[in-house]
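Handout, section B. The chain below has 161 residues.
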Amino acid sequence: MFSNGTVITIFGAAVAAFLSGAGSAIGVRAGGVAAAGVTSEKPELFGKLLVLQALPGTQGIYGFLTAVLILVTSGLMGGSGAQISVSQGWAYFFSGLPIGILGLVSAIYQGKVAVAAIHMTAKQPEASGKGITMAVLVETYAILGLLVSLLLVLFATKGII
């Protein structure tokens, strides 16, 4: 039977993975729709467009990594059978929120920037690097969310928060 702290910790890992993963799915879908339209007219641009479509998918990876880190450091993954207090559970839960929320929002907006960059690349194929740069700038905030989540997991593990 799970303790309340264990359940709260699992929810924290789930929030990190599910929210950022949902944002990535939305962003990658938007890029895919735009890229499919352009590729139907200009198949030679497929490689450049694929990079732009894939960029919003990284937030889901960040959320997944954070979820695994929460589960490993809390002792839930690896068979240690650790008992997690309610306060520790809340610390792990809040550790998942920064990447969960920032991953969700930044992936959606990165997808929108990627769509604009895909349209730009359709008109000026040599400008695809500029479009990639524009889309990557949005990801900066997902990376900041990842770093905050990682620090909070470290603090939760050490009992600092």
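Note. The CA atoms of residues 51 and 132 lie 8 Å apart. Compare this with the example in section A.
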